[in-house]
Amino acid sequence: MSRLAPARPLARLVTRALAALGLIAVTMSPLAARAAELRLRVLETSDIHMNLLNYDYYQDRESQEFGLAKTVTLIHRARAESPNSLLFDNGDLLQGNPLGDVVARVKPLKAGDIHPAYKILNLLDVDAANLGNHEFNYGLPFLRQAIAGAQFPYLNANVMEADGRRHAFTPSTLLTREMRDESGKTHTLKIGVVGVTPPQILEWDRQNLAGKVTVIDMVDAARTQVEALRKQGADLVVVIAHTGIDKTELPKLSENMAAQLARVKGVDVLLLGHAHTEFPGPSFAGYPGVDLEQGKLFGTPAVMPGRWGDHLGIVDLTLTQSGKRWQVAASRASLRPIFDRATRKPLVDADPMPAVVIAKEHQATLDYVRSQVAVADQPIQSYFSQVLDGAAVRLVARAQLAYALKAVQGTALEKLPMLSAAAPFKSGGRQGWTQYTDIPAGPVAIKHVADLYVYPNTVKVLKLSGAQVRDWLEMSAGQFRRIDPQGPAQQDVVDTQYPSFNFDMMLGQDDGLRYALDLTQPARFDRDGKRVSDAHRVVDLRWRGQPLDERAEFLVVTNNYRAFGGGHFPALGSDKVVVDAPDETREAVAHFLAAQSSLSAAVGQPSWRIQPVPGVALRFVSGNGAIAHLKETPQVTLVKDNGDGSATFELAP
């Protein structure tokens, strides 16, 4: 070895000389050849639904389980941990609770006013935001007025002007940001951002959007924008998609297209929402293309942060530079909660900023929701509304019926029998075990009306045949699991994956409708409204004591979401609408309640029931707040308090 040592300096000199003459390439040292490495954190909020503060306006008290004010604390922490970060919001921000209604309807924004949501988001330095489907609930003029106050780009690539040739909103943006790599060197990164929302807005908000906009497929729109952003020099492309994850391959214009969007070439990060679920999370175990450990969907980093600010979505990226291009070398998506569901304890305090900047709007909302409209002579609750014909849903159905009967007076429609359909909107589950209507006996305020009916839907009336009415009820009965009479002695009765807002019950004028549900039968329709069996779960269907005539004509009052096809109910659609009323269902409920001397009498008699299955105990889970109502609900018995805010119950035989 010692004999070779003197030759090394000479060899280096020869090598440098030859390199200077261009005869050989100089080999860089490993340290010099190492590509620049940059770490970037992408943060997401989604489906805030105007829960800007950790305040439950329906219960008129603070909440530890939701609220953007708590998420803000997590945002500050996450940013402090990473020198490079971006923050995006994924829509369904402007609607969802009485604060949203006050700003949009009760005390509408004046010209030049900043919407309270943007008073907060502007101070958070949001980089860009996407439009969710509920952004359209208050109409296009209000939406445009509201988002004009946002000091960041608002995006949507698949809602087009009515001519179909021009985008109704800014489809995408190319952000330019200065960021530091791991050695401290500053680089200029170009980040392309695209936004898309479900095409079903044309069904759900037809009265606001018909003839004004059209919608194209989310995946097609995203693909076009991603390609354009790459051509413009985007180093990184983020797709903010207000859509959920489905297990199956779906056709174009479907609602939950995350799996297809994840496979669009050139997408580096996929931010999800709409479904109010949590990804990565155990509920997606076994889904095609899902990597729960890394938080990927078909190889693309993806995150979905629940709802109402209960989680912050985080995607951590490691970028490496090759030449002038940056590539994602590693990634991990994760969620940070504001509340520990197991211990029932908060994990963070609320940041004080939101409460300070929207104090005026918050107080106006409190004044509004505390105003009295009626008096209840019995409690009104929705804990058992998925298995019993309860007062909370029946009050809404009766209010709709009273409104619609007046609307058809003096018209040819007046002679037709009328039914009313309503669903339990607040039913716990993925919403949280405190999310039920629970109105004590005594004064009924606006907050209670909003608690009974949480959406700004409007009243619609359809004309249907008796056969179509039966199919409507059969579709609703898809909420239940099939019960095996020869199976276990205890069986769960509710399919918890079925959205409770699609479980419509019906009642008729003069209590004329009666029916039962036989859950030993298979469902007649799947969730897309496709007939999958010849069975009938709806049995003993009677109108005024006689078997319902499937050839007879009926009027059915419902909301705009259902009337225009929301939920994929067979036969329903705009062609069946005969009364296209402009008034909100909540207004109809408030007027109905105010006109009643006794709410217990106004509720009327139950119209439906689940048939018992001999030898099988039918069980279901609800919030443990239901335990306090067992004395007034003898049809239900307690099995156990589960200790997590829920309890297991059993239907009495």
Helix count equals 18
CATH top level of the largest domain is Alpha Beta
- Rg over CA atoms, rounded to whole Å, is 28 Å
* Uncertain regions spanning at least 5 consecutive residues: 1-33
Count of discrete domains? 2
Number of strands: 37
| Percent helix | 10-25%
What layout of secondary structure does this protein have?
Layout: H1 7-20, H2 30-33, E1 37-45, E2 55-56, E3 61-62, H3 68-80, E4 85-89, H4 98-106, H5 116-123, E5 128-130, H6 140-147, E6 154-155, E7 159-161, E8 172-180, E9 186-196, H7 201-204, H8 206-209, E10 213-215, H9 218-231, E11 236-241, H10 258-261, E12 269-271, E13 278-279, E14 290-291, E15 296-297, E16 300-305, E17 311-322, E18 325-337, E19 339-340, E20 345-346, H11 352-357, H12 359-369, E21 372-376, E22 380-381, H13 391-407, E23 418-422, E24 438-439, E25 442-445, H14 446-452, E26 458-465, H15 466-476, E27 490-492, E28 505-508, E29 513-517, E30 538-543, E31 546-547, E32 553-559, H16 560-563, E33 577-584, H17 585-594, H18 599-603, E34 608-610, E35 617-623, E36 636-641, E37 646-651
Parallel strand pairs: 1-4, 4-5, 5-6, 9-11, 11-12, 12-16, 23-32, 27-35, 29-34
Antiparallel strand pairs: 1-17, 2-3, 7-10, 8-9, 13-16, 14-15, 15-16, 17-18, 19-20, 21-25, 22-24, 23-28, 26-32, 26-33, 29-30, 30-31, 35-37, 36-37
Helix pairs in contact: 4-12, 13-17
Question: Could you please describe the fold and organization of this structure?
Answer:
This protein is an alpha/beta fold. It folds into two domains: 33-362, Purple Acid Phosphatase, chain A, domain 2 (4-Layer Sandwich), CATH 3.60.21; 382-612, 5'-nucleotidase,  domain 2. Helix content is 23%, strand content 28%. It contains 18 helices and 37 strands. The strands form ten sheets. Strands 8, 9, 11, 12, 13, 14, 15 and 16 form an eight-stranded mixed β-sheet that branches. Helix 4 (98-106) crosses helix 12 (359-369) and helix 13 (391-407) crosses helix 17 (585-594). The longest helix is centred in the middle third of the chain and has 17 residues, at 391-407. The chain is globular and about 80 Å long. Residues 1-33 have low confidence and may be disordered.
